[in-house]
Amino acid sequence: MSVTLSPSGSSVSATTAPRACGSDVRNIALAGHSGAGKTSLIEAILYVSGCVERQGKVDEAASLLDFDPESAKRKISVQLSLAHCAWDDRRFTWIDTPGSPDFLGDYVAALRAVDDVLLVTPAVANGELDHGLEQAFDLGHAVNKAEAIFINKMDRDNADFYGTLTALRQRFGEHIVPAVLPIGSGPTFEGVVDLITRTAWIGSGRDCRPAPIPEDMRDAVEEWRAVLIERAAEGDDELIEEFLDGQELTEEEIERGIHEDLLGGRIVPVFCGSALRGIGIRPLLSHLALEFESPDEIPDAEGTNPQTGKRQTRPCREDAPFSAFVFKTFADPYVGKITCFRVLSGTLTPDTVVRNAGKGTEERIGPLFRLRGKQQQPLTIVRAGEIAAVAKLTSTATGDTLCDRSQPILYPPIAFPEPRLTFAAYARTKSDEDKMGNALARVSEEDPCFRSRRDEETGETLLEALGETHLEVALARLARFGANLETRPPKIPYREALTRSARAQGRHKKQTGGHGQFGDCWLTVEPLPFGSGFEFVDRIVGGAIPRQYLPAIEKGVREAMARGVVAGYPMRDVRVTVDDGSFHTVDSSEAAFHTAGVLAFANAARQAGVRLLEPIAELSVTIPDANLGDIVSDISTRRGHVIGIEPADQTGYQIVRAHVPAASLQRYVSDLRSLARGRGSFFLTISHYAELPAHLSEPLIADYEHRRAEGNL
Questions:
Q1: Nearest 5°: phi and psi at 89?
Q2: Residues 6 or more apart whose Cβ sits within 8 Å of residue 611
Q3: What is the pLDDT of residues 580-609, one digit of tens each?
């Protein structure tokens, strides 16, 4: 049984604790930088709330939530996981999200399922916040989620609560206010003081008890309590009037003010503790139970009618038509597919037939369950505002909408971050190759930020990920589905280009007894501007070449362009004019003129001169002011040049725009994280092609000639 404080300050049981607002459901995502202790915090919450009898340890690979083999191996979360517990008559669903930027997609997905975000950061001694915390805060704020912060690891050496609090207020604003203060720090950390109830909570885990405030903390408690009350009162005209008149606000009024300000984003309460030792967990849960947003307080869900395209809304009520949004899919080679969803309106029971609004298909719902890590707990009904899961849906994937068949609605899909790292994949064995397609589809379904595609220009299968760790985890998952792949840097899609115009003959003559082969044509080749494509011009007069052979000549030219002339790379942006030739009434054929076209183009191209072109990316990098010089210098070392610098929308950031050879950007996602300490982001598109410097093109040409001489082409 959990314990909270009554308005008088005495403890009361959870069953009699007052309910300050709305529904008893709380859907909360935990977010922050990798290593902040998010998973450990949920493990502590599950233990303190009585859901489990032993607190799982991440460092011992014994976490209930890090059930994925790669999470256990790496001792970091590599995908979101769910858990639930009850506290103070509230039913909590927790979504633990990875802190690494390589798995940002799961946090973005979780934001579509929750109403509130609890950000976790370690108590830092130097006052410097991790970029993962900043990014998570900004993303949650952008979609109007109520947010709170838990300063973790207060028991480690050099922990500095007030330094971290100052850094938080400087970065995010003065609406960041403490709801508790720590008792001690580092080895002496033993509990927290609740600023609303003026009660100290001493002890760890389930052995947590109320106690008087330490004498040396009374002034600090009153000072910060006044700050909290002033901020809580600002969003309520009645409360601010009482505050300005000097009246003492009751604990219920303070809770109400914090709750209303959380809904409006006007306050971010700060808590602290130690997840590993379970210190500060009880007051954290009691505050979140009373103050965080509940599903019945959010605006109606907005979507469109998939048949008419007209805007529709659904209230979070059980008597509304059923609708749900799928925010995560787990793919397992043994268990099968598990679909996680949030019911936005109505109710859902097993054996119901629902509609997939986007795909126009129907799904029969099997057994419903809640997830606690990989554990499944059966449900007989899922109501509006609740999160649940179902197995073995056939056509439904992440981002899909499920709804009532007779009253369809389609919700917007998730805007996942775009992958920035690309590698080519090769199957290790024939068996791996046979399983590669299915494995790629299964893993991509589970993780929409991991993608695969075939590059038509190079013929390679390309894997796209958010970073190197993301790619490594995806490869491990592919292996679980039977596809063992190795990766290499992708081939650069160089191109060959003409330097000037030239005219040459292609003559194919072969006599082997019986009908021979004869084809003869003259071609003029001319370079065209980038992006112009291929032009084939017929200027034959006087019947020098019969018309039926011209398509064969064009086919031969296209084949020669695709094959390349000097280095084996395709040629684009060329005009080819056929203006003369000859034929034999018996020996000429389409095949002979096809070969003549190949020869004529190769001869003309060599006379014109061929140069190698490389793809040039237009790179846009957003970085803090302090890193501007490093980024500009780095671009220069990559043979790039800056074309502009301008202020970003975010204060203290700049946008650097540059043209940079694509070949030098293959690992830029990792390089930029190192240069900007995780605070940079970039976007690139192929802008144009430019001539490859001689010292880089000559080895490519020499290698091609060597392979051709040895018959390896």
A1: 60, 20
A2: 496, 497, 499, 691, 692, 697
A3: 999 998 899 999 999 999 999 999 999 999
